[in-house]
Amino acid sequence: MKNQKPPFEITNHMIDHVAEIAELVGKLSAVSSLSANPTLRRSNRIRTIHGSLAIEQNTLSLEQVTAVLNGKHVLAPPKDIVEVKNAYEIYERLDELDPYSVEDLLTAHGIMTRDLVEESGMFRTRPVGVVDSEGHVLHFGTLPQYVPDLVMALLEWTKTSEVHMLIRSCVFHYELELIHPFTDGNGRVGRLWHTLLLSKWNSAFAWLPVESIIHDRQQEYYAAINASNDAGESTVFIEFMMSAIKASLIEAINTSNEMSDGKINKVALRWKKIEEYLKTHDYIMNADVRELCGVSAATANRTLSMLTIEGKLVKYRCGGHWAYHLAV
């Protein structure tokens, strides 16, 4: 089993993604205040944690996650609050982790699930079925006696493979979910490790909220896992994840452009219009912002995201769409 290549195909689509992502990373480095701007870095990290935990049914809103991490009291299930604090702690220690170390993987799981699961920081000792958010069984995880060897072989392949890190990190993410090495927290640790691997390729990825994009496209995420499970290889999942990585880079570049001098006023102007609109409406949606401010869907989305992070708006589901109301 050692060093055996996990099953996947490198498609033309993936090669295009690699080229586009490399170009976007270059653009981001040129325009971004990401590495120099602690406020932007913190808001991105908060979005990362909110996105990754929300996929696992954590009930805290982006505003509540922000409040918890600012040391404020939040009325929410204690378990959900602990999840947020644990996730923040391990993401803050990202640069200390060795992405190819089984000990560091177990340490990360230990911090991520501290006071939450019985077998925290260790591989599971019992068989497990993997279910989606609706409770449908996706597949059965590897039998526990094979888990340690399979995880070590996967880390070794990830370390020594000559496949581009953008593809390799996606393969690792998928294969870890397939093995399902922990009783709980597999998804959270898989997404954390994906970010860790990408950050070793380019440090900007430590601060990119890819998890937030996955959360927005959660059904596609599960569908890609299912399709790869059915095919017995991770090709579909890799293509989905690369499109999510690309989307998060485009969003980061656009946000940096929005935050550059001279454009801040535009954002303030949009906020005034949105605030006025919400005086006579219960909520606002992307389409309303497009019409109100004369902007594209992507700009409307960024504006709403930024206002949510700043605590001015609250995001929630309304009839299958995202809606926003004024924060009280």
Itemize the secondary structure elements and their pairings.
Blueprint: H1 12-31, H2 38-55, H3 62-69, H4 78-92, H5 102-112, E1 129-131, E2 137-140, H6 147-160, H7 165-179, H8 186-201, H9 210-216, H10 218-231, H11 235-259, H12 264-280, H13 286-293, H14 297-309, E3 313-318, E4 321-326
Antiparallel strand pairs: 1-2, 3-4
Describe the structure.
It is built from 14 helices and four strands. The chain has 328 residues and is mainly α. The protein folds into two domains: 12-259, Fic-like fold (Orthogonal Bundle), CATH 1.10.3290.10; 264-326, Orthogonal Bundle (Arc Repressor Mutant, subunit A). Strand 3 and strand 4 form a beta hairpin. The radius of gyration is 20 Å and the shape is globular. The N and C termini lie far apart (56 Å). The model has no long low-confidence stretch (mean pLDDT 89).
| CATH architecture grouping of the largest domain | Orthogonal Bundle
CATH evolutionary superfamily of the largest domain: Fido-like domain
**Which segments are poorly predicted (pLDDT under 50) over 5 or more consecutive residues?**
none
Largest sheet: 2 strands, antiparallel
At the fold tier of CATH, the topology name of the largest domain is Fic-like fold
Radius of gyration, CA atoms, in whole angstroms: 20 Å
Mean pLDDT, nearest integer? 89
The helix/strand class is mainly alpha
User: How many strands in all?
Assistant: 4
Strand content: 5-15%
N-to-C CA distance:
56 Å
Q: How many helical elements?
A: 14
State the domain count. 2
